Amino acid sequence: FDRDDTNPEPTDQSTLEIIEKLNLSLPELGTFKVIEQKVGFRYCSIDRMPMIGPCYDIHQIQHDYKDLIKGKRLYQMPIANVDTPVYLNIGHGARGITSSFLSAQIINAMIVGHSLPLIDKLFERVSPLRFVLRNLKQ
Fold first, then answer.
1. In contact, 61 and 77? CB cutoff 8 Å
2. What's the pTM?
3. Which of 91, 90, 81, 89 has the alpha carbon at shortest distance from 57?
């Protein structure tokens, strides 16, 4: 895992580091031998939190939440209208395997109208709406 490396080809140095870590972590499995190599990229958001939730109409949100610029607090604003069958579950980065199960439960709860399986404060941190709202507040 090389955070800022955008090279689509595997490097000898990176491969050696991975083998070294595997040998240290799992010595009982013996020595690892490279048969094939690939490079993969995982998308993550700017704030390193996934985006889980409906795909909002950005123009409608900008209109409905324009009073945030005037200093109104978010809790004083109307609830965002969700009129879309499209939901996002992206930007998990290297944590996708562990966070995908909870995110699937969140989307399922939203679609069927059940309460979310996490507190509101945490949902605000993963909602795709957070970026639009931050921009409006600034």
1. no
2. 0.66
3. 81
